[in-house]
Design a protein that fits this description.
This protein has helices at 43-51, 93-103, 108-121, 137-150, 167-184, 195-201, 219-224, 229-234, and strands at residues 3-14, 17-28, 32-36, 58-63, 66-67, 78-81, 155-159, 188-192, 204-209, 212-217, 239-242, 248-251, 257-259, 269-280, 285-292, 298-305, 317-322, 328-330. Helix 2 (93-103) crosses helix 3 (108-121). Strand 14 and strand 15 (285-292) form a beta hairpin. The protein is elongated and about 80 Å long. The strands form four sheets. It has a six-stranded mixed beta sheet with strand order 6-7-8-3-9-10, with helices on both faces. The chain has a five-stranded antiparallel beta sheet with strand order 13-17-14-15-16, with no helix packed on it. The chain has a four-stranded antiparallel beta sheet with strand order 2-1-4-5, with helices on one face. It has 332 residues and is α+β, with helices and mostly antiparallel strands.
């Protein structure tokens, strides 16, 4: 696997604040890599350093194997789509898409061909003559994407590009961006705070906190084996408890079973507790149980129950159990 870009010991400080703290990260060629994390974790700062808008305090930014740390943005060969789209209202859709090509002095005939190609790729060829104000939010986002693609960038950088769209359009555009990336073979780096977006779209996801990388890997690897409690909580895990050996563990609600008989099982985890809430969700019920873990600490566990033969109501005494293979041990 080749590397399109790389952060080598990169730190970015703003006064006394360290936005990015000594990260090492390789961006694989031809894949979609997501920088994921809460606000202030350093993901956007990392993207801006990769784009050349901000220079690192220390460390190197490598692009295609060459040190690009001091290379200005316009010479990095990168395309970028911002959260705001930044379309020119006085220009047509085609003129917006061709703007970067015009700056690069691409000849007129070639520019026209590449604009048409980029608009066809995003499904907006029929709107080439329209002005941005006539377009929906989703269409404006596609124009911004086409403009970035038209210059044929070595990397396409996307900074929270879907955050201004409604929920339905966000889902549609996730699929569109994945389709375009697959068809073009572009190397894409996407910044987002949305774990669902990252899990659905990424070939590789990088979860950040306070300027450091907490975990990276394929979405299935990170989701099924979170490295620590922060990663688990950010990805939606809600059940945490201490095991007999003192290790911290987590478990998904769908991997917990509820038994009203109170009978012991051969599972890796069996705890007695009291039901405090039952939330009906159509296809299942979320049963919340107060119990005590192996270290005597009070914990609240949630089980996703689909078996109608195991009714549960608030106040019921139950056993909560899970197979040992479903318990995920976490670093402190």
């Amino acid at each position: 696997m080749t590397t399109a870009a790389e952060f080598v010991g990169v730190t970015q400080r703003f006064g006394d604040f360290t936005a990015v703290d000594g990260i090492d990260l390789a961006i694989p060629t031809g894949q979609l890599t997501t920088l994921l994390g809460p606000s202030g974790c350093g993901k956007t700062t990392s993207l801006r350093m990769l784009a050349g808008y901000t220079q690192p305090t220390s460390g190197r930014i490598m692009i295609a194997g060459t040190d690009a740390t001091r290379t200005p943005p316009e010479r990095r060969g990168l395309g970028m789509v911002f959260q705001s789209y930044a379309l020119f209202p006085h220009m047509s859709v085609a003129e917006n898409v061709g703007y970067g090509l015009k700056l690069r002095k691409v000849p007129g005939a070639e520019r026209t061909r590449r604009v048409a190609e980029a608009l066809d790729l995003v499904g907006l060829g029929h709107l080439a003559a329209s002005r941005p104000k006539k377009l929906s939010g989703g269409q404006q986002q596609r124009v911004a994407l086409a403009r970035a693609i038209a210059i044929r960038p070595t990397l396409l950088l996307l900074d929270e590009p879907l955050s201004n769209l409604d929920a339905r359009l966000r889902v549609q555009m996730r699929a569109e961006i994945r389709r375009i990336q697959a068809e073009t073979g572009l190397t894409v780096v996407l910044v987002t705070h949305d774990q669902d977006e990252a899990l659905e779209m990424s070939d590789r996801m990088v979860l950040m906190r306070e300027g450091r990388i907490m975990q990276e890997g394929a979405p299935t690897e990170v989701f099924t084996a979170p490295a620590n409690r922060f990663v688990a909580e950010f990805l939606g895990y809600e059940n945490f408890l201490t095991l007999p050996d003192g290790a911290l563990a987590t478990i998904r609600p769908e991997h917990l079973a509820i038994d009203r008989s109170g009978a012991a099982t051969s599972a890796g985890l069996t705890l007695d507790g009291t039901v405090v809430d039952v939330a009906y969700r159509g296809v299942d019920r979320l049963v919340t149980v107060d119990t005590v873990d192996a270290q005597g600490t009070a914990v609240r566990l949630m089980a996703d129950v689909r078996d109608e033969a195991v009714p549960a109501r608030a106040g019921d005494r139950v056993s909560v159990s899970a197979a040992a293979s479903r318990l995920i041990r976490l670093a402190a």
